[in-house]
Every structure is written in structure tokens, then in C-alpha cells.
């Protein structure tokens, strides 16, 4: 991972660190590695989303462990400097700066850690479509609903999950959401 970190410019690495800190503070549901990866690739950096997700996980582990152990900025940088001699200098500078500015704000309560292991719902999009024909059937005229759920997994990686439903399935789905809404109103 250190060789991939070396490829990332200081400003984008700082943005990645900031997003990790925000995710640990539950201010955002996860690090948007897909968007960051696309920006990096557009600027000519050869990195894939899997490598960027690994780096985000490493930073998340680093910052949460430092918070759990109440490390000062100097203790963190000294530990990193002695343990990980392969980290580029600009990365150590960014980690030092971000930890100095925002490190103490990380909430490491037991409840927050347990909640984070489940993942988090971020967004939902849907669209109505009609299948007109296929290779095997000339005339389908079959309506369907496509739902895309945006989720942040426990590591903070944001992913989209899509599925299709028939109209009766969608009506059942909608009815269950109405039931949940009515139960939540009583709480």
C-alpha cells in the first residue's frame, strides 16, 4: 500500500484522510472511494478502487487505534516513523496535520463501534421501466421497477446495490415501507 500512497498527491491524500476522520466521527456514512479514485485517475494517477479502499481501511484503522490509545500527534508520528519506514514523507506530514487538527474529535464509544459494524443506508433511487422485447420473446410489454440502494459498508466503502422488481413485488415493498413509517410515528 505504501507504494500506492506514494502515487497520491498531497492534496488528494489529505482529502482521503479528512473523509476517513469524518466517517469515524459519523459525520458522513463512508469514504467515497469511487469518486476519489475517478478524480485521481483523471489527473493521471494509476490507482484502482480496490487499492484506494485498502488505503482508506488502513487510515481508518490507524486513526481509530490512535484515538482508542489517546495518542498525541507526536506519539502517533513517532510510532509511524519507527514502525512504517516506507511511508512517504508527504503522507506523514498529512497524517500529522490531520491528526493534530481533528484527531481528538474521534468518538470511540463502544456504541459507535458496534453500530459501525452493521453498515449504513445512504440513499435510494428508483426508476420505472418497460421491457419491450428480447431475443426470445417478440412482445413483452413487461413493466418493472429498478431500485438502487447506496450503502456504506462497515469499513466505510460506499457501494451501490441494484435490483429489479415486478409491479406486484414493488407494491408489497411499498406497503412494507408504509408499515415501517407508521410504526416509527408511534415511537
From TrEMBL:
MF-aspect GO terms: NF-kappaB binding
Pfam families membership: COMM_domain
PROSITE patterns (UniProt xref): COMM
Residue stretches spanning the membrane: none
Domain COMM as annotated: residue spans: 120-187
Function according to Swiss-Prot or TrEMBL: Scaffold protein in the commander complex that is essential for endosomal recycling of transmembrane cargos; the commander complex is composed of the CCC subcomplex and the retriever subcomplex. May modulate activity of cullin-RING E3 ubiquitin ligase (CRL) complexes. Down-regulates activation of NF-kappa-B. Inhibits TNF-induced NFKB1 activation.
PANTHER family: COMM DOMAIN-CONTAINING PROTEIN 4-8 FAMILY MEMBER, COMM DOMAIN-CONTAINING PROTEIN 6
Assigned protein family: Belongs to the COMM domain-containing protein 6 family.
Protein name per the record: COMM domain-containing protein 6
Originating species: Xiphorhynchus elegans (elegant woodcreeper)
Amino acid at each position: 500500500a505504501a507504494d500506492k500512497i506514494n502515487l497520491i498527491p498531497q492534496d488528494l491524500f489529505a482529502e482521503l484522510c479528512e473523509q476517513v476522520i469524518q466517517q469515524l466521527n459519523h459525520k458522513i456514512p463512508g469514504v467515497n472511494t469511487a469518486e476519489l479514485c475517478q478524480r485521481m485517475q483523471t489527473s493521471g494517477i494509476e490507482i484502482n478502487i480496490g487499492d484506494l479502499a485498502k488505503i482508506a481501511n488502513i487510515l481508518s484503522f490507524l486513526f481509530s487505534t490512535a484515538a482508542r490509545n489517546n495518542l498525541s500527534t507526536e506519539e502517533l508520528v513517532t510510532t509511524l516513523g519507527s514502525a512504517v519506514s516506507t511511508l512517504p514523507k508527504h503522507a506523514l506530514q498529512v497524517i500529522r496535520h490531520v491528526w493534530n487538527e481533528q484527531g481528538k474529535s474521534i468518538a470511540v464509544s463502544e456504541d459507535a463501534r458496534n453500530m459501525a459494524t452493521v453498515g449504513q443506508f445512504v440513499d435510494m433511487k428508483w426508476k420505472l421501466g418497460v421491457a419491450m422485447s428480447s431475443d426470445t420473446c417478440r412482445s413483452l410489454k413487461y413493466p418493472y421497477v429498478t431500485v438502487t440502494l447506496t450503502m456504506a459498508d462497515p469499513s466505510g466503502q460506499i457501494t451501490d446495490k441494484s435490483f429489479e422488481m415486478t409491479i406486484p413485488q414493488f407494491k408489497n415493498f411499498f406497503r412494507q415501507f408504509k408499515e415501517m413509517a407508521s410504526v416509527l410515528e408511534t415511537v
